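Risk register update: the risk of archive-format incompatibility is retired. Evidence:
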Amino acid sequence: MIRFGISGLPPDEDDADFLDGIVERGHGAYELAFVHGFPWKERRCRAFGELAAERGIALSVHAPYFAILTVEDPQKRKQTLAGLEHTMKLGKALGAHTIVAHAGHVGGREPDDLHDLVADGLSTIEPKVRDLGVALGLETSGTDRAFGSLGDIALIAKEFAFVRPVIDWAHVHAKSGGGLTTQQAFASVIDFLRSEFPGWAIDPLHTQFTDNQIGPSGEIRHLPYGEGSLRAEPLAAAATEAGLRMIVISEAKEELSHDAIQQALVAGERQAAPSEHSNGEPVASGLVHFPELVLAMPAGDGAVVTSLDRKVALTNVDKVLFPDDGYTKGDLVTYYASVAPLLLRHLEGRALSMSRYPNGIYEDSFYEKQRPSHTPDWVVSVPIHSSHRGEPIDFITATDTETLVWLANMAAIEMHPWLSRADNPRNPDFAVFDLDPQQGATWEQVIYVAGLVNLLLERLGLAGYPKTSGATGIHIYVPVQADYSYRRVRRFVEAIGRLIVAADPDVATMEWDIAKRGPRVFIDHNQNVAGKTQASVYSVRPREGATVSMPVLWQELDDVVPQDFTMVTVWDRLRQRGDLFAQVLSGGQTLEGAEAALGLTDDA
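Archived output:
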């Protein structure tokens, strides 16, 4: 549960020998202290990172002390932000999971002004760092003179998907007036973290540790371990009982202190058993490490969730839905509870079609649109008129984690939202390119066609965002203002598709007759129809491995396949990258310019 490491700079000798020495000492992490500048170039960072990865060592980097976010002088601010940006780029080369940085000094300024200053700095560097796959860890402050309480960092992290908390336990101890002396005190900090951050953002939680001397305004200085009042044993016990994975970096100056901290952490882990979960037992099978657990108590023939705000009824949580892997309905429930902070924003206000597999992915399945009669009163639904039925259909919407858990309990493996919102059902928010490889087509062909779509979109002045379908293809979402009919959006997608087919008919097709498609990539523009749905981003798919529809960057398409992203594997990626699909929700684009360039009239 706990990886221990130290902070420092390797000597200019053989890096492999240095890292072997780390492993021999039982360390599983190492933090490169670039605190005074940049002693390494990108080339050495990349080589060192590869050696560390081979040995299973988790790397992090401490940014230079000058790379802070509260400097106001324009010239100095430019330098400090550049320093932070450069550290993150070196971190990418290293394969580091976190860049640790101090937010900066208070300097007599008001909290709101400091927050705005930090947010402005992060906004400046965000376009250059958000897609690096490296988290920016803001370190908790240790004195009244420094900005960065846990509350401050939580507010900032809600605005910036690449920001994570870094807990310096010595600093928290100092700011609490020496209050971190018991297991319960550490547990209360862990509880606060879990209340303010989604589980995947703090799994593992990156922390620093050293003993310290405390004064009226906070920390005065570090001390050799044992000379102050901060102890690692109750920390390890609290983390173990809470089921929290944690990286602990010793910032002590003495080798003896490193050893003593590591020994105390081991002792704390041994003395504490994982939580017996007094308010229930996990419903997951134990085959997957989830960043959040759903707990339930037996009730009648089933169970009732006790770890959420509502007591959702569950049935047959041990039923295997993915026979090749052994993943159960309880695993599906726990996945959706864990991913809820990301997924819910993409489902907000959208009607859902339920894709249900009551006996697993290889048995009969069915779609269900109408709200079932047994739906709990608290589940929100919306009526949308159906021209086919001649009356409204009452569609389920997902407004909270409990609704996702309820849907998963019905073995609704996939989340299928409309492309339009329920309050404007005839006008979609997205134009979607569904690239579906036909029998005999390759993933390389799919990537090639996706690249052509992206090229045309760019030339039309539009941005598209790709995600793996979770099956075999790619979905490209083009956010548009909800001012256009489905017909008009569909016509736009069709026009681009026809250009691609004309340019390379051996690779792409829009042939409606399946028998005539051949081993090509089918561009399905008819997904842009009212009432039709796509598997949502972050939705599980009914496939071997429990694959997940996952957003990807254009530049990484050559390096991924849909099977890379599963209910098991997505958590590290989410922790490091956050929601790559957030920009899809940030505002629509207009189509008039593109339509004019494509020769389309506006009479649709």
